[in-house]
Amino acid sequence: MLRPRIFFAVVLACVASAARAATSGPLACVQEQRTTLSACLSQSRDQCNAAFEAAVPPCFGTAAPCATACEAGQTQCMAGPTSARNGCEQACNASQKTELEGCRKRPAARRCGLAVKFRALKCRQKCVRSVNAALQGCAQAFDDCLKSCAAGG
Description:
mainly alpha
């Protein structure tokens, strides 16, 4: 449930960075694709990401291979932090499950369960915060790479 929020925050950071960039040419096209991606996220994240990745390189015409390389770099950059976050969240969920089982044996099971759920939520939020800077760095590197492609590099 938190992963879409993180991804959306990263997308918003990308959009904000792109908004400061040139408003014509390939970067404007990328901005349009990001807007489409944001609208699409309410449907299916994986399908939206695939559509975005397919739509960006053609924005660059003959520099499409450069944009494709930027996408590959972003995917590689995000792999480590995403994996770390997922592992952390799995540990939080496992702990929550174990603690909830213990709560069922207590007289104040409902109160205990709420406290466990709250701790698990805080745990997952900590997981998100622990990788947020790295994911923002990936988004910035992606924007910089695309700007380089647009400039002919």
